[in-house]
Amino acid sequence: MKSIVVLISGNGSNLQAIIDQCATNKIAGKITAVISNKPGAYGLQRAEQANIPAHVVDNRDYAERADYDTALMECIDQYQPDLVVLAGFMRILTSDFVEHYHGKMLNIHPSLLPKYKGLHTHQRAIEAGDTEHGASVHFVTPDLDGGPVIIQSRVPVFAEDDADELAQRVQQQERNIYPLVVSWFCAERLMMDQDKVIMDSIPLGSNGYAAD
Asked: Whole-prediction pTM value?
């Protein structure tokens, strides 16, 4: 069983999806800790309800980003994780932190990367007149939202959509694809080699895994 540490900042809906998949043995891993940078994050309650150790490493307690990341690493590393999962963790991480977990840290981003890195992705997709939008799971590298894509899920953008409606549609897909990728990693089907995604020993293209 792989040791999984999940980092959150808020509601933790993707965390819950992974908890549920672990509970039904669809993921060959165990969430050994949940860590939040925000004390009031609801995801901490989700962890406690699932009897998972929950920690707060509050970024407001650290004047320097590097000092915060060092404290966060110390908290994570006591669980000797095989995988670190960013599930709505709203922090830009230092290069030293990212390199420390090279090849074993995942993130999910609410856009079809490389489109719309950063924030406000749903509104940006609407304003651009896009007809489709979606989510991407990727390995984390020092390039913000720029690591190699593992899988993407697409949703339609309707003329009457506002950002909240589009976000809900994307979040439904996130809860499907994120646990799937975690299961691949824990089954040792997935790895990153020289900033490329390798799935079942086969390099994936720039859009990651795709199946009908």
From this structure: 0.96
Whether 109 sits among the annotated catalytic residues: the reply is: yes
16-60 per-position pLDDT tens digit:
999 999 999 999 999 999 999 999 999 999 999 999 999 999 999
Instruction: Sketch the domain layout of the chain as residue ranges.
Output: 2-203
Q: Which of 102, 109, 120, 133 is catalytic?
A: 109
Between CA 90 and CA 38 the distance in angstroms is 10
Contact at 8 Å (CB) between 171 and 181?
A: no
b/e burial code for range 57-73 (CB count within 10 A of at least 16 → b): bebeebeeeeebbeebb
Distance CA 38, CA 60 (A): 9
Task: Tell me the CATH class for 2-203.
Answer: alpha beta
d(C-alpha 117, C-alpha 12), whole Å = 21
Tell me the pLDDT tens digit for each residue of 191-211.
Answer: 999 999 999 999 999 999 975
